[in-house]
Amino acid sequence: ARASAGRTLAPQHVRMVQLEEVPTDGGVAAAAAAAAATGVSAEDFAEAYRRLPEAVRQAMPLVTSDVLETNGPDALPEGAIPVIEQTIKYATGDTYTGETIGTIRHGVGVHQCENGDVYEGEWRDDLRHGEGCMTFARGLEYKGSWVRDKAEGDGVCTYENGDVYDGEWKSDQRWGWGVFDMASGDSYEGQWFGNAIEGKGRYTYADGAYFEGEFRDGRRLRGTYASADGRVEYVGAWKDGARHGHGVYHETGRYKYMGEWADDMRHGAGKCVFADGVTYEGSWADDRYAGRGKLTTHEETLECEWVDGVAEGAGTLAATSGETYAGTFKGGVYHGVGTWKGPEGERYEGHFVQGKRHGKGRCVWADGSSYTGDWTNGRRHGYGVCVFADGVKYKGEWEDDEWV
């Protein structure tokens, strides 16, 4: 943009140079040709400056108004840009007071919006750029670094509800490393991405509990959660804020679980050791035994199929007393066909109902005697054959464990 011909510059005004959009090689040498400007208005100068490539503008030295007042217009080096303090009133009702290049806000100044918003700080090329504080009428305040009208770099933002973020910014978003103190008492220190908690960090709750690990889109992804009193700890994977995937959970006085999780419940393969020493290892669904698994207590070991936390289907039981069972279960007790052995050598093969011998079955006692026949509620009842230890045999009806 060239100065208009035929205009004269008032003697008291600073001498300006003609500005040309000339490619540069890392400097201002070819960016401006020295010539006496005639009659260049502030608006014309601003438009000429605005048209320059950014690299050229940034390379030009700036001379502030106080330097000019002290040393006079001749203090302006050839190719330099004068920065003048003034107040600009806009048609919108906004006002700006501070340093300018023509009508371009450039340097340090205060812009007050008609709606009550205020920015005080550094400007470049009519944009907030450098250090500054933006206070919104609604109560939000940002104080820190700006790049081309965006919060970028280090800055502190105080929100309307009392939350405070102190950390890195990019394009008006929390991005990088920062500390977020919430009015609720919760706090977070760690990485941010796209205005969301993302990456590594530590979230501390108001009650003292914390989570430390990796976050994705503001939610826990992988790491350690511990309650304030230290009684509860979980180390493992998360999804949508819930334990999900492989993890180890320990709650003092209750149990320790190592295995798979889904939606905050034990789900999949895992081992649980309870506070009383009982253990279960196997498959889980919705926080209950489900599928194949082994339950070990102080008295017995039961390995079988489980449904909703109850033994169902084929399985085996071995008790510390010497009792064993191999067969089917229902509702947690012997039910169906199975083989039971007692600690004294007694052996029963046959049908069970609700944990008792019921239906057809054969029992052999330790002394060699046996009974083959009908059973009801754990007693010989109906037709059966009994062979005593001395070889005597009885065939006939039985009632309530006695022959009739």
UniProtKB/TrEMBL annotation:
<dbReference type="Pfam" id="PF02493">
    <property type="entry name" value="MORN"/>
</dbReference>
<protein>
    <submittedName>
        <fullName>Uncharacterized protein</fullName>
    </submittedName>
</protein>
<dbReference type="GO" id="GO:0016020">
    <property type="term" value="C:membrane"/>
</dbReference>
<keyword id="KW-0677">Repeat</keyword>
<dbReference type="InterPro" id="IPR003409">
    <property type="entry name" value="MORN"/>
</dbReference>
